[in-house]
């Protein structure tokens, strides 16, 4: 019986892991390039869901609503960077990781409170943009789950092409390796910062819009996903984009297996047991390097 359920659990784990990977991919970009532990990234995810919900409720097509939400969340991300992070990073002696982390937590709380003022605390759900499912002899998977998995593949391909096939990507990679050297080579790191925040916020917004059609949305909905995304970063290797994908998929599989063969009450326990195991066996993560010079 347990083996009979395995294909279905794997399909569910792949869909859930894809959502974690989407959130973690944007977080990895921001942290890997700017060294900002952006706890406010969960609010980009939340705002992507709420803005999509509001636009769909006003009569807009879901995909157009999601696209509009992504653009708006990118603008919000730039404002957050300008107001929350840049002043702290530029302050003499205060641009440390701890100061930036505290700033990120403050930004997260402010965005949550603004969402509460605008939409209230009542949980809502975005009407599913598609219905139906694919049934096989081994498993059943919904069209929305397939869309989430396909979105992750498209997002990863787009990010890879930007990073490895464009001048902007070359500047981003150079800045992530050594910011001072990049400045000396004439790279405009301000533009790199804006582009990195734009990509990261966009990925968070897409994940929120798609998940809002599956799970209830509420102002604090970004807290749990961003914590899971940081776990994914550690599992996959901090700053590693392939690690964000693999780490997200691994985490999704583990949670579904624990919930399916055990109890959903132990789902988060399984998450953090995996985190502890990775830290003990391979502290730099699956795709990380033991020593990174910056």
Topology:
Layout: H1 2-34, H2 41-57, H3 62-90, H4 97-119, E1 133-135, E2 140-142, H5 143-164, H6 167-177, H7 179-184, H8 189-212, H9 223-236, H10 241-261, H11 267-281
Antiparallel strand pairs: 1-2
Transmembrane segments: 20-37, 44-63, 97-121, 141-163, 194-218, 230-254, 266-285
GO cellular component, one term: plasma membrane
Subcellular location: Cell membrane
Can you put this structure into words, describing what you see?
It is built from eleven helices and two strands. It is mostly helical and 294 residues long. Helix 10 (241-261) crosses helix 11. The N and C termini lie far apart (51 Å). Strand 1 (133-135) and strand 2 form a beta hairpin. The mean pLDDT is 85.
Q: DSSP strand (E) fraction?
A: under 5%
Low-confidence stretches: none
**CATH architecture classification name:** Orthogonal Bundle
- Overall residue-averaged pLDDT value: 85
The strand count comes to: 2
Give the biggest sheet.
Answer: 2 strands, antiparallel
**CATH topology group:** ABC transporter involved in vitamin B12 uptake, BtuC
Number of domains: 1
Structural class, please? mainly alpha
**Count of separate DSSP helical elements:** 11
Order of H and E elements: HHHHEEHHHHHHH
First CA to last CA: what distance?
Answer: 51 Å
Q: Identify the overall geometry.
A: globular
GO cellular component, one term: plasma membrane
Pfam families: BPD_transp_2
Family: Belongs to the binding-protein-dependent transport system permease family. LivHM subfamily.
Transmembrane segments: 20-37, 44-63, 97-121, 141-163, 194-218, 230-254, 266-285
């Amino acid at each position: 019986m347990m083996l009979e359920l395995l294909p279905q659990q794997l399909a569910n784990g792949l869909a859930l892991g894809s959502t974690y990977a989407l959130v973690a991919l944007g977080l990895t970009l921001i942290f890997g390039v700017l060294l900002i532990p952006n706890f406010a990234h969960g609010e980009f995810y939340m705002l992507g869901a709420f803005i999509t919900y509001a636009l769909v409720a006003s009569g807009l097509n879901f995909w157009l609503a999601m696209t509009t939400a992504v653009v708006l969340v990118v603008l919000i991300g730039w404002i957050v960077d300008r107001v929350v992070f840049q002043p702290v990073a530029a302050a003499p002696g205060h641009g440390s990781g701890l100061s930036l982390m505290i700033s990120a937590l403050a930004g997260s709380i402010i965005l949550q409170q603004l969402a509460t003022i605008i939409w209230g605390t009542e949980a809502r759900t975005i009407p599913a943009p598609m219905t139906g499912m694919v049934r096989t002899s081994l498993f059943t998977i919904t069209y929305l789950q397939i869309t989430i998995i396909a979105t992750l593949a498209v997002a990863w391909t787009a990010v890879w092409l930007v990073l490895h096939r464009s001048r902007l990507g070359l500047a981003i990679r150079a800045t992530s390796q050594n910011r001072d050297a990049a400045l000396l080579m004439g790279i405009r790191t301000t533009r790199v910062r804006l582009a990195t925040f734009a990509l990261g916020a966009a990925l968070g917004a897409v994940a929120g819009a798609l998940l809002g059609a599956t799970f209830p949305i509420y102002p604090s909905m970004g807290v749990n996903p961003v914590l899971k995304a940081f776990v994914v970063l550690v599992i996959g290797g901090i700053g590693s984009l392939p690690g964000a994908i693999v780490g997200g998929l691994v985490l999704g599989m583990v949670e579904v297996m624990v919930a399916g063969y055990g109890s959903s009450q132990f789902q988060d326990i399984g998450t953090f047991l995996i985190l502890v195991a990775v830290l003990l066996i391979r502290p730099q993560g699956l795709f990380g390097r033991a020593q990174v010079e910056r």
